[in-house]
Amino acid sequence: MGFSVNTNTGAMAALQSLSETNKGMSQVQSRINTGLNVSSTKDDSASYTIAQGLRGDMGGLKAVSSSLSRAKSVTDVAVAGAEQISDVVNQMKAKAYQAADAGIDTATRDAYNADFVALRDQITTIVNSSDFNGTNLLKASGGTVTALQSLKDSNTGSTTWDPDSLSVANQDMELGKSVITVAASGNISSQASAQAMIDTLTTTQANLKTTLSTLGAASRKIDAQATFTSKLSDTIEGGIGNLVDADLAKESARLQALQVKQQLGVQALSIANQAPQTITSLFR
């Protein structure tokens, strides 16, 4: 090709190369700034859409974790209350045994009965106090606990999302009910009532074993599910990172290379732009 001042092919080629280098620089700087290799669907549509779906799951798992934490707190409060009631029932039974002794006098039996009544009323106090955020598993009117267990739809035949959940039933440990069979007016004021109370408390102790086992199993199940949810969340977060996170060590090395290319490109363009000036020497 002859000399021409209208068309500078070398300058155009140098400019194209410099533009590509600048584009690469912009891309590397974006990755360094955001820490992401894929920050937009323009970078990689498949990876971006998969990552977005996983981010949605992460948000759902946070809700699951929060729900499990709430259920755990309610259940643990109920466990603490039930364990305390079990201790109180044991003390009540000891008082009943003492009051059932035919060899004690009336004043002594009255003293035992006073202690027994105080312990009996303590059960009501414990039940009423075993409340967390408006839920009380030991009181009949205290409600039950239901918590999200996972993001899985438990009813695949439904057209709407039906969350997989776990629940902890109300134990109703008020006096005179199915678990605590001691009546609200129960006492050991006589030898006969003390003997009858021993049988009542034996039944209550058997009921408490079942209740404590139920609450303990529920607490362990919630703990296990919360641990699994946490591990699952970490795994998904790692998966998102594998899809979209930038390798900053590689990007740093690439940045260094592109900076050198940019400098060389500017020099090449400068040299190419000077080429038409050589034509003037032909007219001297």
Automatic annotation (TrEMBL):
- Name any one GO molecular function: structural molecule activity
GO CC annotations on file: bacterial-type flagellum; extracellular region
Q: Where in the cell is it found?
A: Secreted; Bacterial flagellum
Q: Entry's InterPro entries?
A: Flagellin, Flagellin_C, Flagellin_N
Grouped into one coarse class, the protein's main location is secreted
List, for all copies, the residue spans of the domain called Flagellin N-terminal: 5-140
* Presence of keyword Secreted: yes
Segments forming domain Flagellin C-terminal = 200-283
Alphabetical UniProt keywords: Bacterial flagellum, Cell projection, Cilium, Flagellum, Secreted
Which Pfam families is this protein grouped with? Flagellin_C, Flagellin_N
PANTHER family cross-referenced by the UniProt entry: FLAGELLIN (PTHR42792)
For this chain, the family text in UniProt reads: Belongs to the bacterial flagellin family.
State the protein's purpose: Flagellin is the subunit protein which polymerizes to form the filaments of bacterial flagella.
What's the protein called, per UniProt?
Answer: Flagellin
